[in-house]
Specification:
By secondary structure, the chain is of the alpha/beta class. It folds into two domains: about 5-185, Rossmann fold; about 200-270 and about 300-329, no CATH class. The protein is built from 15 helices and nine strands. A nine-stranded mixed sheet has the order 1-9-8-7-6-5-2-3-4. It starts with 5 loop residues before the first strand and ends with a helix.
């Protein structure tokens, strides 16, 4: 298997985008980090928001040029930092088929391009630039001079310079210091969706709730269950990042290591593996994308119902109580 290429500062031409008009659409976690990092790298960047956006005052207070969504018409590079489900309608409204080419569209997640929710004008360069962490960390790492690694992919290269533009943008947000990992829209999309659903978000939250509930059903007080689960997650996650899964197990007690490795054989059996394959298959086939977009079109009733149930879970209620106690102390 060929390993993906990793680019660093020497591979990037930071001046390539300096004279181009860059517009960041949206000012959420990633949009803010992109806009501020690009500005501080000397780029000609502006932020485009809806007239009723709650972020307008923040953009102005952070001394960034604020424009309407129509600003994309005169932009050389457009960075899509609005939620995935809003991007298709935005694209259809602001990028007519007769629009000029010679423009770079930058996506922070590959979902809409990979699954065809957006079919870009054949005259555009289309690039993926996906940081490996939340926007706050992207900004903090830039300010501290460390940078954050990212994925980079090219879906359309009309100009012959799409990769060069992507590398220049990656360097401007600080990724050249930590590593710019070459990938494809398909690989980033499937990996991101599967990873967050089964481990990083869904798996972590779901397993935490299930373990917590089993403790409660066996007579362990909620406070004890919280301290034995949620309270220790950050420390163990840091150990996994530093040492890997097996290395983390080596660094805990022999009792914890023996019991954990033994229980893993029972929990994560063939049936569990089959379920993971089923989830991955549904993502790859576009079934999740269809459900997501259908729920979004209706105002997310399914998401709201599921989130309401999660907030009513006893593990969540106990975690909220600990959080309140911490704030009051």
């Amino acid at each position: 298997m060929t390993l993906p290429r990793i680019y660093f500062g020497a591979d990037c031409d930071p001046e390539f985008i300096l004279k181009k008009q860059i517009t960041v659409i949206g000012y959420g976690s990633q949009g803010r980090a992109f806009a501020l990092n690009l500005r501080d790298s000397g780029c000609n960047v502006q932020v485009a928001l809806r007239e009723n956006s709650a972020s307008r005052q923040q953009v102005l207070s952070e001394r960034l040029p604020l424009r309407s969504m129509a600003a994309v018409a005169k932009s050389d590079i457009v960075i899509f930092a609005i939620p995935d489900h809003e991007q298709p309608d935005f694209y259809r409204s602001h990028f007519p088929s007769e629009d000029r080419g010679n423009r770079v569209l930058v996506f922070l997640h590959g979902l809409n391009i990979h699954f065809g929710n957006i079919v870009p004008n054949p005259g555009y360069d289309v690039v993926l630039l996906a940081p490996h962490g939340p926007g706050k960390d992207l900004r903090d790492n830039y300010v501290q001079g460390k940078g954050m690694s990212c994925f980079l992919a090219v879906a359309q290269d009309v100009s012959g310079r799409a990769l060069k533009a992507g590398l220049s943008l990656a360097a401007a947000i600080g990724a050249d210091k930590a590593g710019i990992y070459e990938t494809t829209f398909e690989q980033e999309t499937l990996g991101d969706l599967f990873g967050e659903q089964t481990l990083l978000v869904g798996g972590l939250a779901g397993l935490t709730m299930a373990v917590f509930q089993t403790m409660i059903e066996n007579g362990i007080p909620p406070e004890n269950a919280y301290l034995e689960t949620v309270h220790q997650l950050r420390m163990l996650a840091s150990m996994i990042e530093e040492h890997g899964p097996a290395g983390m197990i080596e660094h805990v007690s022999k009792t914890a290591a023996y019991g954990s490795l033994e229980s893993m054989q029972t929990l994560f059996n063939q049936q569990f593996g089959d379920k993971l394959q089923e989830i991955f298959g549904g993502i790859k086939a576009g079934e999740f994308n269809k459900r997501l977009m259908a729920d979004a079109a209706k105002g997310f009733p399914v998401l709201k119902q599921l989130l309401k149930a999660a907030h009513e879970d006893q593990c969540q209620l106990t975690a909220a109580k600990f959080s309140r106690n911490k704030d009051e102390s």
